[in-house]
Amino acid sequence: MKSPKQRQKFTDEQLEILRANPFTSRVDYHHIWFTLEFQNLFLTRYEAGESSPEIFTSLGYDIDVVGYSRICQYPRQLKRRLESGKELTETHGNTKAEEPKYVDYNTMPVQQSVAAMQRELTYLRQQVEFLKKITELDKKEK
């Protein structure tokens, strides 16, 4: 018997359904990552009083596929991430951001270029925060 905390694995069919949604950044058998656009829309609508299931459904997700517990826990996960000072990203919070490569955004489809710019902006913000911390440490040593 499964413990209540253990999440159901996605089937191959469910993975395909989830990948087809434009708000899915990445999905594997155990986890789903959402785009920055989804996260921002979710926060805005959740703070306006909509419920998690309403938001997920209106953004094209089947509650039975995603899982009711995932949907209901999602606001707490976002809140914890924001309260800990972490920025919203399309990757897992412990994943190190990759250095963006030079890309000509004019040659990409609009959604793809926006996503690439968001990743680059997140990376650059992380670099700035790192430089601030180094500067602060350097000042304390003097």
Which regions have little confidence, pLDDT < 50, spanning 5+ residues? none
Number of domains: 2
Strand content: under 5%
Could you report the average pLDDT, rounded to the nearest whole number?
Answer: 82
Instruction: Identify the quaternary structure here.
Output: single chain
Helix and strand content put the structural class at mainly alpha
Count helical runs: 6
Question: Can you count the beta strands?
Answer: 2
Biggest beta sheet summary: 2 strands, antiparallel
Radius of gyration: 18 Å
Mass-distribution shape: globular
Helix content: 55-70%
The strand line-up of the biggest sheet is: 1-2
Q: Provide the succession of SSEs.
A: HEEHHHHH
Characterise this structure:
With 142 residues, the chain is mainly alpha-helical. The chain folds into 2 domains: 1-90, no CATH class; 96-142. Helices cover 56% and strands 5% of the residues. The protein has a two-stranded antiparallel sheet with strand order 1-2. A hairpin with a 4-residue loop joins strand 1 (24-27) and strand 2 (32-34). The termini are far apart.
Spell out the key features of this protein:
2 strands, two-stranded antiparallel sheet, mainly alpha, 142 residues
